[in-house]
Amino acid sequence: MIFVLGGTIDARFIVERIAAENVHVKLHTLTQYGASLASENSKAQSGALNSEQIEQQISKAWAVVDASHPYAVNISKEAMDAAKKQQKPYLRFERKSVLANCADVYFASTHEQAAQLACELCDCGNIFLTIGTRGISPYIAAARAHERSIFARILPVGESLHAAREVGLEPGQIVAMQGPISSDMEKAFLRNFGVDVLVTKDSGMEGGVEAKLEAARSEGVKVVVVEKPKLNYPWQTSDVETLMSQVRNIADQNKTKP
Fold it and tell me: What ranges do the domains of the chain cover?
């Protein structure tokens, strides 16, 4: 069995590929929403896992494929530690960045830095967040201190809406929509909310970053990017075929064991 940590479109695709190889696969996502989007082949479960629970799952598996969100560093650290302890292969899949050569983008290493930078850059409009609900608090605090207005696009699920309201966003500041969306729709959002600064994560083409950049450039909107955390993965790829080659090798080795 291959244990997959996911919740992104990458993880769902990987699970389908593994299942197509007639290899038993189990997917775990943080949210019920992420699990609901998975195929029937994945036997998806959801919820936060502590270190002991991760160890238990990996102990039953041939290997763990970590296709969790690039910013979900805690689960990746726990999975790496558990795989090392269990002496099981750890395979990290992480989507490619599309921001490597973007000279017109402002980078920040933390949400706190991004919040301050966004407020400093915002001089004639509003700030639009497309970072999910985790990490919104620093932006609210900075916006209040700098007397700026912010809006946030989040997933259209109860837990995200609750989290946004809990940190202080009013209903009129929330846009609930499943991404990624087209560049034209991104432009419409920027115009509608009078956006001067857009804040996003380096979530790759699959996360809609290219469409956001195209729209921002077209509308003259500044872009602040929260950089991906840097972890020392024992094995990593952004190519599905390379990952699948490793999975097949691991599956073949385990299938031939007495």
Answer: 2-96+232-255, 106-226
pLDDT digits (tens, 9 = 90+) for 187-211: 999 999 999 999 999 988 778 899 9
Site of tokens 């593994």: 18
Q: What is the pTM of this model?
A: 0.87
The residue count for the chain: 258
For the segment 74-122, what is each residue's pLDDT rounded down to a tens digit?
Answer: 999 999 999 999 999 999 999 888 887 777 899 999 999 999 999 999 9
Please give the class, per CATH, of domain 106-226.
alpha beta
Question: Residue 40: which of 25, 30, 54 has the closest Cα?
Answer: 25
CATH number of 2-96+232-255: 3.40.50.720
Q: Compute the distance between CA of residue 211 and CA of residue 117 in angstroms, rounded to an integer.
A: 22
